[in-house]
Amino acid sequence: MDRKYLKIYNIIANKIENKEYEPNDKLPSEKELMDEYEVSRDTVRKSLNMLEQNGYIQKNKGKGSFVLDINKFNFPVSGVVSFKELSRKLGRKIETKVENLDCIYPNRNVKVSLELGNEDKVWHLTRSRAIDGEKVILDKDYIAQKFVENLTEEICKDSVYEYFENVLGLRIAYAKKEITVQNVTEEDKKYLDMKGFEMIVVVKSYTYLDDTSLFQYTESRHRPDKFVFVDFARRH
């Protein structure tokens, strides 16, 4: 069985881990790798496919293979954590930009998601999140106005959870979450630095107060090369 592709995979992976190839560097072409390692094109492609599957590179058709930043951020799946709280743990340069804030009558999907009546309005909030200067998260929040009468851009740029809990006295209790991988939308491309990625990781959250009232529905859209989604599980 041909294992040459594993040898090439390990060599290139080690070069990426040791910073011989930096993030965003373009790897040598398939032909150059064939000549360097004296192997077939099929062997080189197997190596590159494995590197892509394990998050070392991104292959762009017609452009080549580019090195990814392998220093990913742990994003907790369990627990209800604000981005401001998470940013303290990351210890990186963090910036939030409010892209949209208005109070609207929601469409049918949002109304169903938040279990609202026909006369209920929601705060529609869209924020991009930059880490070390790169916009890598797009948060789209829908917050039932019957629980939050007023909301400002200044509050949203800081922390809506601090405002909900410390000013409004709301007691946020728990959230149900769904994680999917979806095709990138034009909105993602508009607000995020997508770097050619065609897929995005979407975390949908349904957040409840301690009286079991559902008050917030969120779609948090993450560029796939930047995050590892972690959970803690205990048997029994």
TrEMBL record:
CDD domains: WHTH_GntR. Residues 2-70 form the HTH gntR-type domain. Pfam families: GntR, UTRA. It comes from the Bacteria. The keyword Transcription applies. The keyword Transcription regulation applies. SMART domains: HTH_GNTR (SM00345), UTRA (SM00866). InterPro entries: Bact_HTH_transcr_reg, Chorismate_lyase_/UTRA_dom_sf, TreR, Tscrpt_reg_HTH_GntR, UTRA, WH-like_DNA-bd_sf, WH_DNA-bd_sf. Keywords: DNA-binding, Transcription, Transcription regulation. PANTHER family: HTH-TYPE TRANSCRIPTIONAL REGULATOR TRER, MANNOSYL-D-GLYCERATE TRANSPORT/METABOLISM SYSTEM REPRESSOR MNGR-RELATED. This is Trehalose operon repressor. The gene is treR.
